[in-house]
Design brief:
Rossmann fold; RNaseH_sf; alpha+beta; Protein argonaute; five-stranded antiparallel beta sheet; RNaseH-like_sf; Nucleotidyltransferase, domain 5
Length: about 675
């Protein structure tokens, strides 16, 4: 069955006739500020010599006459794209404010419209659905484009902040609603004249302060619910006659994806090699086809770190890991990990509120045998949603201290195990998978011919709740996905970042000779100062091979996606489909990675419905991008590397070149030391 793909885009016409903007060099009253990249192409007609003066800003009232502002006729089709987008964003904002809707902005200044859910009945909160209307100009068509997306929902307290701060600190406030405006409380509270008319938007800090449970996780097909919501928004607002007077929408349906924009990875890109054959779905194949390489380490000894009251649960957990059940056969048979449990070295604590001092002493006093590879199973009394930060950080401190002792660890939430031991065998499948990978085993591998090429991944993480700084780490891999090593450093350390990438190349070349190509998977656009040392290293090593940089991002909800209108109403495009979403000369793509294959009749239940990821491909030698076969191979490699995630049997859509560094970057900043021990740079301890 062929795909019928549509973008979440409604198109509009740019005006054929000139329109008049009103501009001033100085700000007079309320006005829109235009940065110099947005100056009209014919600005010299109005302000002779302004390009030589080179001011950073001028000001405009756009199409409204205003005292002190001078008229300038513009052909919008000939103007800078940023100016056109600014103009239409301004018009969209004015429209929704005129019909009494809340309008905010996302981090790239697109309009986000909040629509109240009148059917939501709750005495404490009002509920809003959030939609982004993003303006693009001729990105995937010959028209202006409105990318319509659903960004989730928000809850707003019905009691004003004057009431809720009686029960919590103002430090827990973030965004508030005041007189039909969305304000950041700590940055814009000077605009709030009356706290009895300002209403807090629920955030994680307020959720914790008022002991409000998070919304239950929805594992249903989010393509369907997403499209249903934007359908209603478009019908009610975008296709209304009032809106069309502001933005001349020229089609009442979504924009079809042109066939020449669509590609597919090879069917073989889905193949994974296990011990007893080739499979595609680790959830099934890992058990049936067995891990490719069982644990490569001898003398693996397990021990427990637990509270004194957990003795019975420890015995049961050990029994499950050793002998398993009728379905899960234990660590050895299921995952190829031959383990001995040594309860004589267990670390036991009796303080549930503050276990770290006793655990730390137990680790410090641990007498290890250099001929034994130790694995610690830590039964944590705190879960990952623990509101107390100090308790939540115990997990990280224990992991760090064990690494310094060259001990691999696996953390299990005690309450999760205690509540339902029967169902915990499903958790044990993922735990067993991760333990195998940590112990230098290979659960599965890509079905590719080995090539002499180096793939380096750089990822980062920021915990906004705890204000943890960004950090990044660089991983290097062979083309079959085999992990080499990684380095870790702060986000601001541009020199360290470039040095780590250069070091990965330096370490690879003497053993493997000249690679066919070097590929860098980066979590953001790579700056010149980050890529220049890499080029210098390649020049130093006299490497004639091409260098490719792939910027890889998870698709945000407020971004462009695509639906398949021709597949059982499930809408999810086929796995391996990629779509060119850039204008000519820009190598930008959506890549879909899921469990729908050529012969899939219905999408597997309880599986991930991930949105696509976005790729942008560049090279310091632009002519290297002229090879369409090479572009496809680079996209296929991203697709394949997403299938090497060994923390869970559940399909991922982000390649491990980005995901693994992100996982390290989430954990490592909580360590006391600024560096990860050398032992930790050679193992997948973070899984």
């Amino acid at each position: 069955m062929s795909q019928e793909l549509y973008f979440n885009i409604i198109t509009f016409d740019l005006p054929d006739k000139p329109i008049t903007f009103y501009l001033s060099k100085e700000k007079i009253g309320n006005a829109q500020k235009l940065y110099k990249t947005k100056f009209p192409t014919n600005i010299e007609d109005l302000f002779p010599g302004i390009k030589e003066e080179n001011p950073d800003f001028i000001y405009t009232s756009f199409i409204y006459e205003k005292e002190g502002y001078l008229p300038l006729k513009l052909n919008l089709k000939e103007q800078p794209t940023d100016l056109i987008k600014h103009y239409y964003n301004w018009r969209i904002k004015k429209f929704f404010k005129s019909i009494k809707k809340l309008v905010g902005q996302n981090f790239v200044n697109d309009n986000q419209i909040w629509i109240g859910n009148r059917s939501y009945q709750n005495k404490s909160f009002a509920q809003y659905y959030k939609f982004t209307v993003k303006v693009q100009i001729k990105e995937v068509s010959v028209y202006g484009e409105l990318v319509i997306s659903y960004d989730g929902m928000a809850k707003v307290f019905k009691k004003p902040i004057s009431e809720i701060i009686k029960h919590t600190s103002t430090t827990n406030l973030n965004k508030v609603v005041y007189k039909m405006r969305l304000l950041k409380y700590h940055k814009e509270k000077e605009f709030i004249d009356d706290n009895t008319k300002a209403y807090a938007i629920l955030n994680n800090d307020l959720r914790t302060a008022f002991n409000i449970q998070p919304e239950p996780k929805d594992d249903s097909n989010k393509y369907i619910s997403y499209k249903h919501k934007i359908d209603k928004f478009i019908q009610h607002f975008i296709l209304s006659e009032e809106f069309k007077k502001v933005i001349p929408v020229n089609n009442d349906d979504y924009l079809p994806v042109e066939i020449n924009r669509i590609g597919e990875v090879t069917d073989e890109s889905n193949d994974l090699v296990f011990q007893n054959g080739v499979g595609r779905n680790p959830k099934i194949d890992f058990k049936n086809l067995k891990p490719l390489n069982p644990c490569q380490l001898d003398n693996v000894h397990f021990f427990f770190i637990h509270h004194t009251s957990y003795t019975k649960e420890v015995e049961k957990l050990q029994e499950l890991l050793e002998d398993g059940t009728s379905w899960y056969k234990g660590l050895n048979i299921y995952a190829g990990v031959l383990a001995h449990f040594d309860n004589n070295v267990n670390i036991v604590f009796d303080d549930l509120e503050n276990p770290l001092p006793q655990i730390s002493k137990g680790i410090k006093d641990f007498k290890s045998d250099p001929n034994i590879n130790y694995v610690a199973i830590y039964l944590s009394p705190f879960n990952k949603h623990e509101p107390n930060l100090e308790k939540r950080l115990v997990y990280y401190k224990v992991k760090e201290q064990l690494l310094y002792k060259r001990i691999i660890s696996q953390v299990i939430e005690f309450d999760r195990f205690r509540r339902n031991q029967h169902k915990f065998i499903y958790d044990l499948t993922n735990i067993s998978l991760a333990l195998l990978a940590k112990l230098d085993g290979t659960p599965w591998q890509l079905n590719v011919k080995p090539k002499n090429e180096l793939v380096i991944g750089v990822g980062a993480f920021k915990n906004t709740e705890e204000n943890i700084r960004y950090v990044a780490s660089a991983f290097s891999f062979k083309n079959n996905g085999r992990f080499n090593e990684f380095h870790y450093f702060s986000k601001s350390d541009t020199k360290g970042l470039a040095g780590a990438i250069s070091e990965a190349i330096w370490q690879y070349v003497p053993t493997n000779k000249t690679p066919e190509k070097i590929v860098i998977h980066f979590y953001k656009d790579m700056k010149d100062e980050e890529i220049q040392p890499v080029l210098e290293m390649m020049d130093k090593l006299k490497l004639p091979c091409p260098l490719f940089v792939l910027n890889i991002n998870k698709t945000k909800s407020e971004d462009i996606i695509a639906f398949d209108q021709n597949w059982n109403g499930e809408l999810i495009p086929m796995s391996g489909t990629y779509i060119n979403i850039g204008p000519k000369g820009v190598y930008k793509y959506l890549l879909f990675n899921n469990l729908r294959y050529n012969n899939t009749v219905k999408y597997p239940s309880n599986s991930s419905y991930s949105f696509p990821i976005k790729l942008k491909i560049s090279s310091p030698t632009p002519e290297a991008l002229n090879d369409s076969k090479m572009i496809r191979k680079l996209i296929e490699q991203v697709y394949q590397f997403s299938r090497l995630y060994w923390k869970s049997l559940r399909q991922q859509n982000v390649p491990i070149t980005i995901k693994y560094p992100e996982m390290v970057a989430e954990i490592a900043p909580r360590f006391n030391s600024k560096e990860i021990p050398p032992f930790g740079q050679e193992t997948l301890w973070f899984l």
